[in-house]
Design a protein that fits this description.
Distance between the termini of chain A: 43 Å
Shape of chain B: globular
Number of helices of chain B: 17
Number of strands of chain A: 0
Strand content of chain A: under 5%
Number of helices of chain A: 2
Shape of chain A: rod-shaped
Largest interface: A-B, 22 and 32 residues
Structural class of chain A: mainly alpha
Helix content of chain A: 55-70%
Oligomer: heterodimer
């Protein structure tokens, strides 16, 4: 099995942090209400 | 083989970076259009139906224009289609901002943006991936591009909400138009030398390729599966909040579910693409559709709580657009890459017809029966149908009779 390079691990970690940061944006109360009322209308 | 007979390929890094960035923009920008519903209808004094009609036209135009965008991309190069698509995207968004009549809004937000999406999303970019990335990496690369599109959808919703809140809905559309223009320089990264100056010499005509695909049972089965994908995804996407509201759950549960679908969709599309390099794609597709049915049955069988919704959303997110890479990679494997964009456009049209029926039947049967139960079970039955019909798909390259010399 090929060893996983540090660069690859760092890349995946950055991607994970980025995804979680965007996910956190969805949890803001004002966005939650706006989305619940509007976004699904035109999915 | 001489250099003149083998067109130079673009590097994988270049194709992936430019292709992923284009799909991130094109899929992302459109995904948050629902956020404009309230400000546009309030400012213009229109009904919600006016807005929803434009969005319905956009989805249908996207499907139909995809066929022609694919044909042009396969004949004259994806670069030209992406270039035009980027400009139309920007123009459509600007015109959407200044449209003062329902017809002008329908023409811009509906027709122009539908055409722009057809020219800048998966089918066109997958043609470049197919032609420039070796078969042993193709499914994975399609997974990367699909994951990028999923990320765009996930990212742009909060970004667009922030833009509307900070600079107003019209300026937000102009800002998105400027962002869409970035597709133009990115398209130069996907300019294929073999297509420059119309040097491509097709070995099979477009119509012959189309006739061959439409008469090929495996292509019909893939189209049937993709129809089910569209039906399930859009039915759940559009009607889920009402379903949750009917059962007494608060709006923030629906929003968290949306975020979870977006998050896990990225993981699912990438994983499906990667798996396509190791496992037969028909098994991947069959498993995805079977699992969707299973997940829906479990969701309907357990008591409805916020946690059951979150688990359902996470599982469905993993299965959401994960059909995209294996379906397109199978088309490439069977028919080759010469007309991949056009054939991808055809299977996508089937997806859009399913989407339309998912939304429409969801509402129609809800009105007729007073609940979503019937449509949920139709979605389950269709999932089982799609799981079965994908099993006999033959992934081997089609054998064509050699042309007879004159």
């Amino acid at each position: 099995m090929k060893p996983v390079s540090a660069f690859r691990v760092a890349l995946w970690l950055v991607a994970l942090v980025l995804l979680l940061a965007v996910f956190a944006l969805y949890l803001q109360p004002d966005l939650a209400m706006t989305l619940a009322n509007q976004l699904w209308n035109c999915f | 083989m001489t250099a003149s007979s083998t067109p130079a390929r673009l590097s994988m890094t270049r194709v992936l970076l430019c292709g992923a960035a284009i799909v991130t923009l094109s899929m992302g920008v459109r995904h948050g259009f629902g956020l404009w519903l309230q400000p546009v209808t309030m400012d213009r004094g229109w009904t919600r139906e006016t807005f929803a009609f434009a969005m319905a036209v956009q989805n249908l135009t996207w499907g139909v224009a995809g066929l022609f965008a694919g044909m042009v991309a396969d004949r004259f190069g994806a670069f030209r289609v992406l270039l035009a698509g980027g400009v139309i995207y920007a123009g459509g968004l600007a015109l959407m901002a200044v449209a003062t009549t329902p017809w002008a809004f329908m023409a811009s937000a509906g027709v122009l943006l539908g055409i722009a999406q057809a020219g800048t999303t998966y089918a066109v970019v997958y043609g470049v991936i197919g032609r420039n990335i070796a078969p042993e990496k193709r499914s994975w690369a399609m997974g990367v591009a699909a994951a990028a599109g999923s990320f765009g959808q996930f990212l742009m919703v909060p970004v667009e909400n922030g833009l509307i809140g900070s600079i107003g809905w019209q300026s937000a559309l102009f800002a998105l138009g400027a962002a869409a223009l970035l597709i133009v320089p990115l398209a130069f990264g996907l300019r294929e030398p073999g297509f420059a100056g119309g040097q491509a010499k097709p070995q099979q005509s477009i119509m012959a390729a189309l006739r061959e695909a439409l008469a090929y049972p495996s292509f019909q089965l893939l189209m049937a599966g993709y129809f089910v994908c569209g039906f399930q995804v859009v039915f759940i996407g559009v009607h889920m909040p009402s379903y949750l509201k009917d059962h007494g759950l608060t709006p923030d549960v629906a929003t968290t579910a949306l975020a979870l679908i977006g998050l896990f969709n990225i993981v699912g599309t990438y994983t499906a693409g990667s798996l396509g390099q190791r496992v037969q794609k028909r098994y991947i597709l069959s498993s995805i559709y079977a699992l969707r049915s299973l997940v829906i049955v479990v969701f309907l069988s357990v008591p409805l709580t916020p946690w059951s919704v979150y688990l359902f959303a996470s599982a469905m997110g993993l299965l959401w657009l994960s059909t995209v890479p294996p379906t397109n990679a199978t088309v490439a494997q069977i028919f080759g890459v010469q007309y991949l964009s056009m054939l991808g456009g055809f299977v996508f049209l089937s997806h859009q017809v399913g989407s339309f029926l998912g939304v429409w039947l969801g509402g129609k049967l809800y009105d007729a029966t007073g609940s979503y139960d019937v449509v949920w079970w139709i979605a389950v039955a269709l999932g089982i149908f799609a799981a079965i019909v994908n099993l006999p798909v033959r992934e081997r390259a089609i054998v064509r009779a050699a042309p007879v010399a004159a």
